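User: I'm designing a mutation panel for GntR family transcriptional regulator and want to avoid disrupting the core. Could you give me a predicted structure to guide residue selection? Please restate the sequence first so the numbering is unambiguous.

Assistant: Good idea. Sequence first, for numbering, then the predicted structure tokens:
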Amino acid sequence: MRENGSMSTVTPARRLGGARLAAMLGAPDTARPAYSWLAESIRQLIANGRVIHGTALPSERQLVDALGLSRTTVSRAYAELRDRGYASAHVGAGTIAQVPGGPVAGGGEPLPLGGFGPRGGTSGAYDDGGEPTAVDLTCAAPSAPLGLADVYQEALDELPAYINGMGYFPLGVPALREAVAADYTRRGVPTDPEQILVTSGALAGVAATARLLLKPGAVALAESPTYPNSVTSLRHHGVRVASVPIGSDGTDVDAVAGALRSSGARAMLCLPDFHNPVGTLAPDEVRERWAGELKRAGATGIVDETCARMWLDEEPDVLPMAAFSNDIVTIGSASKSHWGGLRLGWIRAPHALAGGLARMRMTLDLGAPVLDQLVLARLMERGSGLAPETRERLRATRDAVLERTAELLPGWTARRPGGGLSLWFELPRPVSTALAAAAERRGVLMAPGSAFAVEDHGLEHWMRVPFAQAGHELEWALPRIAQAWDDVVGGAPAGRPGSGRSGQRRSMSTTV
């Protein structure tokens, strides 16, 4: 796509029918001119992500038939969309929806991988026809929920109540602290708003907790593999991080108990909820034993609940680990369940640590943005987890990736997680790092297993493959990963394109 209103040639990635758009528009606003209502309604659908950038809108004739409006009304509405930058005209494709200026490059979840990172676009790069030329699979985070722009507008309407003051809320805006506390109470852990400290993301919560509990040189324990940014944050504070393995069946509490004793760890990073990257969910009996072993060892559990509300199949019947110990510090985040761009997290502190954590939190910054906090408070009032349409999309994409990988790479195995955002594949050969390098040469950025190892090496039999990306991006990337696998190990596994099976597969771009 080129400039607004240009008549360039383009092949849209997707098309929207007249009947479907009519259903999305809803009832007309009879208080305004029909063309103005139509243009503004379509603009809001684009701005809120319900009509995706690059989608071909219905032809004028289709929309006339679907809405019963005049051709002049539809033409004027489309012209207004083009004038405002929300559409462009293309030979042979008609009117294409667009975000003014196009999606902003980057925005992927940063991982300490040195040299990896997005190459443009929201999670990759695209040609003029909207087809991927590179896909970033180092990122495991969903896109924003539908209607987020509307929630920001609602929060803007609420903002005047806050702007008469100085705007500093170092512990968090009261409305958000109350919403987070109420959510913990609903989940079975009675919580006062005074126990909630709003942070600029989960990592800020980990950093503040480490500064309070651990002196430089102290030891913290973490399961390996684990989320690498948390380990990096601890090490930047001078903490030594010891590891205990986590297997595909989840946390081994006996191994944790032994590691706590042998390492002398004063704290432990715990990921009981859809572990990143393994995907396991600890049942209540494991959580209770785990909390008990931490208490016996005199170590504080730093529980990362970033993925706690990321269930896909059915909501798990488990309690937060804080229900089993008054000493647990819980870290939460909006980045996975709502949107990474909010950059908001929180600490649920035990009463005994709330004051110390509040003082330590203020050594990092003087508070998160007020507007974003008002947005998150409103989102949490509507639900603390994924939006239903996001959950449905992720569930479908997870299943499609598992099915497609089984066809292309039959030697790869992964458990089907009940939640989270990625699959943790065991490879037939220990070549994860070499595979990541080969995949990059074919336009797919991947994080090797070693990126998730506490020791920064090993786990060469493993590879994380997120399924949060758009279906057409994953459909483009997976065959190239299979080609990269051949580059590394040679041979042609059964089920490759051309083997006669590829034509039988589901298309991810049509099912998600």
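For picking mutation sites, this is relevant: Residues 8-97 form a domain with the Arc Repressor Mutant, subunit A fold (CATH 1.10.10.10). The two ends are 24 Å apart (CA to CA).
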